[in-house]
């Protein structure tokens, strides 16, 4: 039991230590902040972003000179890399190509005055020039063999920009959310902003979450004072603008970048502090349960050592010597458990990646902090587990021990052990209920109507540089028998990407008091994803002017009750001209089940078609994907084919919830196993205490069933008490968890009935062996005098 608890603690500590260390390794991390923004629309909705308009940078340097450093960054670029070698004009289609997910960032030399990364070749000055890139050693070796050979080589980025390798960095730590394995000079973006994001450097209206600003505060410069300066800055530059929302800029510590999902980060990987502390709590409870078992089982068998204690005391042993002896025994047992725990945790490391995205490159046992933790765990468990049994064992009176009355004195301790069993089963029940609620919620999400078809949809990236080939590519795909429909769009119906804009309806001189979510898609988008039109029709491929399809939620928020009445009405998006609504689509989920259905506008705009979607009607999906890939490679030999099934991609929405469910299941299993060990320990003790009573009852005619029930009922009472404690606590916490979802299940009574019935069954199975064993004992043997 201790070994299992210690192994769990080691693995969970490794996760917590890793997650809490993100971007704290910079020497000035306590003074590095990110400028973030909160926008509030007239209807009270709020939107958070870490993005800032490109025009922000120059104005900020001029208006707030108090900031020690201001660092502009752009990422994640997720570039396609084409290796050109020494020839920047290499146009061969046989060159090596790579798609680098979650990678690529733009920054200038000042980046290294704030953040700490080690250079192997070159200096930060190389980033002052446009069209240069600095690679980490790992990526330099990936592209060019030896990292020393990378300098002076050329790469083409996204088939638009030729870049020269000008430096090499030491491999970056795993615990960072700044993707600088490919660090492009910010001057590259400044020279060609259209190919490196959105907007230009005079634009105050467009904001991309990829354009971040980091500031280094002077020593002893308060965050409150900095936020006051930012507030004045915001009022100056946004007050005179006719914006639909009110903006508030403030500082967020870089050490919080990994934990604040409101603003996200370049790697799109955040974990809430509450989840981290939940992991800590689970680890603590499992170790605590293992210690409780040790106490229960140690005290249960202690009565067998009563005579040993009596002999030792008669021969002159002091109580302190006996305590030292029993504590030494405990220390040896705990040490053995720690060794087995380390072995078990080593075997369990592969689980960490599936549970928490723990990097496979991380060397768990190379961390000095972990060994300090194991040493502390060893000392604490030894003291906690050994103290009570040692005190009880050393307190036996020699006279009572020889008269066999020591057992009678043990009844004083039963209430404590019963309390410990109740505590264990309460924890186990809470975890079981958490598992049930998590499973039901995720099952509900998987089965709920999201308003579009996700099964059999295959998505892949497109390069807008070659959009003139898209129509011919579509015709070739439609010649594949298994392909039902093909669509090009900026995005899928539901994803993490979110384009928001202000808009006006029906020639209104004022914008609506809410923003809309915007998607660009061709006319086949509706057929491919089986989106249902409730009024009007979708625009056609032949349309040369912009036309819009809107959803029911948008009309509902505008107060339009009849969808038909919206057909033909004009809408104005941002700075665009007035354009007509041609159709109203039935509501579908733009985000996850955590989000309300957003008001949506869809229109045709080919220059933003980065996504291709194919609807497949084949049972042999892999063979069909191979055909799609072949056509893609023939049509776009310059582009790397990179595709996934949409259904698989949607599961990433709920990665945290699925990980939590897996953690619940594993923790529940461990808690139940440990609780059962505790029951076995206590029933062993009780059966021994009542040996003569059982013998007398058998002589008087009691059956094996009667005696088994006699012993078992006391433990079933403990389980019922555990239910009374666990159910309200579990209900409260799972109700709080469900509040994160706009679409959620209700917590029903049978969840608790199922958990309770399971706990009773487990308790009976744990108790029955020792109970039956006691009931089968020969009464003559149990009643005879020694």
Secondary structure: elements and pairs:
Layout lengths: L1 H18 L12 E9 L5 E4 L6 H8 L5 E7 L4 E6 L11 E3 L5 E3 L3 H4 L4 E3 L10 E5 H8 L9 E4 L3 E9 L12 E4 H6 L19 E6 L6 H16 L7 E8 L19 H28 L5 H9 L4 H38 L11 H27 L3 H5 L3 H4 L4 H34 L9 E5 L8 H9 L4 E7 L10 E2 L1 E3 L10 E5 L4 H4 L4 E4 L11 E4 H7 L11 E4 L4 E8 L14 E4 L7 E6 L4 H15 L7 E3 H5 L4 H35 L1 H9 L4 H35 L10 H27 L3 H5 L3
Parallel strand pairs: 6-11, 8-10, 18-23, 20-22
Antiparallel strand pairs: 1-2, 1-12, 1-13, 3-6, 3-12, 4-5, 4-9, 7-10, 8-11, 9-10, 14-24, 14-25, 15-24, 16-18, 17-21, 19-22, 20-23, 21-22
Helix pairs in contact: 1-7, 1-9, 1-10, 7-10, 7-13, 7-19, 9-10, 13-19, 13-21, 13-22, 14-17, 19-22, 21-22
